[in-house]
UniProtKB/TrEMBL annotation:
It comes from Paracoccus seriniphilus. Residues 4-238 form the ABC transporter domain. Pfam families: ABC_tran (PF00005), TOBE_2 (PF08402). It comes from the Bacteria. This is Carbohydrate ABC transporter ATP-binding protein, CUT1 family. One of its GO terms (cellular component) is ATP-binding cassette (ABC) transporter complex.
């Protein structure tokens, strides 16, 4: 399996940048998700990696070898990269076995090797019993597994997946996520997975690149994105909770800063001495009658085992979990702990200054 790397990668369509200075390395065997809102450039990055588009600037390397950039362009069929689309792209007139065997026929592998590899790929994706069926006789999840088997069979250097579960219903998506996770564990394939479903990205990936407007805002493990978002966009886009402005009090200890948040002094984790905002996850809030900060309940939904409260506190919307149902309009006390402070690049910070996030 191969390492993928992007260096100063830019792609412009009709003068509009779809990708803007992408720099990232994906380790051999790593499962990376590209996550971001519609139009942020996820598919463009995948298509450039596959070789369906040429970069406007910058380079793409596969295991150190330049495949695009610096005057070089390796065509898709010579990159040995597997691709799984949301539309499956199976041959309708071929059986499952023949679909899976096809990449090996193109590569002119001897028949006995072909049979062995196809049998392995079908077994790995749980399709052995369906080998003689036509694609039209399969469910959506089974078709996607055929696409996966067809990609795995030629032992690609990396596998690119473009919203592979977008056409499936919720229950099937969950079970297919398990299939992808198993596929990754068993093959150790380098995987680049495009999705706009953050639950999928956080559940499956070793690291997630959060993209916005053609740029990578943060590239980190799911738990880091959740606990230590780099800016307002990532804090708001990934996970539940609130992003509110913070004011420095000037006090700090070794690991934390004392900040003024919603009129309260709160100790906060931080990677910067000059934060502008805090991310307040639902777990960071305790509903307590003793707490000085008062908030009005604006919504209450049952999540199974606990309730999710939406609160209005000093004009900001907070999200909290509570063991009991709360009445809409009820006023509760809110205590904050274990919040994360960061400096949003769009905001300049000065000591004592109050900032607002538009
Ligand atoms: N062939 C093209 N010609 C012109 N513009 C394009 C082309 N392909 C993509 N774009 C533009 O580039 C930007 C990024 O598109 P891209 O498909 O990469 O986004 P995405 O993040 O995959 O979105 P989605 O989640 O909706 O699929 C968009 O503004 C899109 O309109």
């Amino acid at each position: 399996m191969a390492e993928l790397s992007f260096s100063k990668l830019t792609k412009t369509f009709d003068d509009a940048p779809a990708l803007n200075d992408i720099n990232a390395q994906i380790r051999s065997g790593e499962f990376v998700a590209l996550l971001g809102p519609s139009g942020c450039g996820k598919t463009t990055l995948l298509r450039l990696t596959a070789g369906f588009e040429q970069p406007s600037e910058g380079e793409i390397r596969v295991d150190g070898e330049i495949v695009a950039g610096a005057g070089r362009f390796v065509p898709p069929e010579a990159r040995e990269i597997g691709i799984v689309f949301q539309s499956y792209a199976l041959w309708p007139h071929k059986t499952v076995r023949a679909n899976v065997s096809y990449p090996l026929e193109v590569r002119r592998l001897p028949r006995d090797q072909r049979q062995k590899r196809v049998a392995e790929a079908l077994a790995l994706t749980g399709l052995t019993a369906y080998a003689d069926r036509m694609p039209s006789q399969l469910s959506g999840g089974q078709r996607q597994r055929v696409a996966l088997a067809r990609c795995l069979v030629f032992e690609p250097r990396a596998v690119l997946l473009d919203e592979p579960l977008a056409n499936l219903d919720l229950a099937l998506r969950a079970s297919m996520q398990d299939v992808f996770a198993m596929f990754h564990r068993r093959t150790g394939a380098t995987m680049l997975y495009v999705t706009h479903d953050q639950g999928e990205a956080l559940a499956l990936a070793d690291r997630v690149a959060v993209m916005e407007s053609g740029r990578i805002r943060q590239f980190a493990a799911p738990e880091i994105l959740y606990r230590e978002p780099a800016d307002c966009f990532v804090a708001g886009f990934v996970g539940d909770g609130a992003v509110v402005s913070a004011r420095l009090t000037g006090r700090a200890d070794d690991h934390r800063l004392l900040l003024n948040v919603l009129g309260q002094q709160v100790w906060s984790r931080s990677a910067t001495a000059m934060p502008s905002h805090v991310s307040i996850r639902p777990e960071a809030i305790t509903i307590s009658n003793d707490a000085a900060l008062r908030a009005r309940v604006t919504n209450c939904t049952y999540l199974g085992g606990r309730f999710r409260l939406t609160l209005d506190a000093a004009g900001e919307t907070l999200v909290a979990f509570a063991p009991r149902r709360a009445a809409i309009g009820e006023v509760v006390g809110v205590a904050m702990d274990d919040i994360w402070a960061f400096r949003d690049p769009a905001h300049e910070v000065r000591l004592g200054e109050t900032l607002t996030y538009a």
